[in-house]
Design goal:
Elements: H1 2-48, E1 58-59, E2 75-84, E3 90-102, E4 105-114, E5 118-126, H2 140-143, E6 149-150, E7 154-155, E8 165-166, H3 174-205
Parallel strand pairs: 7-8
Antiparallel strand pairs: 1-2, 2-3, 3-4, 4-5, 5-6
Length: 206
């Protein structure tokens, strides 16, 4: 009988704890989501600069199967937004790109690409790499090499391909560097395709 009572008490404690956790989750869910949205918005503004018409950002659909996983292993485009001027002219693209092959899992970046194909900058939206190693990717010395650079793609020093811009890897963090490299290159290709589509529409309308 005592064992039965103990089991009932334990069950009730578990139920109360679960309900409490659920209540806390519901209370914090809204503020957490608001915080994520605010962080993403700030990152988008940081990587692109001034956005003349924030209300005019237009979501772009990404073709199924893009990007090619053989070319960009682990990469996916989460969001792509066309940036337009007040008069509707095309200014560039803002993207959120994830590569799942970081040392600590997903690495998600925000990146801005201007109308002429210049990478204006990148910022991390999600990164959980090793402190003192992969997390050094957040340092200005690493991020600055992706600012105001016009190139179709980046390559790591040991995989240099003609026409690509060589990027400096994070010291002793090859896996992190590869993940960022693939995410950036996937985003640059997506931005180029969006830009070509937009230009084709303008020509057709003309």
């Amino acid at each position: 009988m005592k064992m039965f009572k103990d089991a009932i008490v334990l069950f009730l404690i578990t139920v109360v704890a679960a309900c409490a956790l659920g209540a806390v989750y519901e209370i914090t869910k809204g503020p957490i989501e608001e915080s994520k949205v605010k962080a993403k918005t700030e990152a988008y503004e940081k990587v692109f600069g001034e956005i003349p018409d924030p209300e005019g950002l237009t979501p772009c659909s990404i073709p199924e199967g893009f990007p090619d996983q053989e070319q960009f292993p682990g990469s996916s485009i989460n969001e792509a937004l066309v940036v337009r001027d007040i008069d509707g002219s095309f200014l560039g693209t803002i993207l959120s790109v994830t590569n799942s092959n970081g040392y600590g899992g997903d690495i998600t970046i925000a990146m801005g690409v201007s109308a002429d194909g210049t990478l204006k900058g990148i910022e991390f939206l999600e990164i959980s790499e090793t402190a003192g190693l992969g997390m050094r990717a957040k340092e200005e010395s690493f991020l600055s090499q992706f600012r105001d650079v016009k190139t179709k793609s980046f390559s790591l020093p040991k995989a240099k391909i003609e026409g690509e811009k060589e990027m400096d890897a994070v010291s002793s963090a090859t896996i992190t560097s590869k993940a960022v490299n693939r995410a950036v290159n996937a985003g640059l290709l997506a931005a180029a395709q969006i830009r070509n589509t937009y230009q084709a529409i303008l020509i057709a309308e003309y």
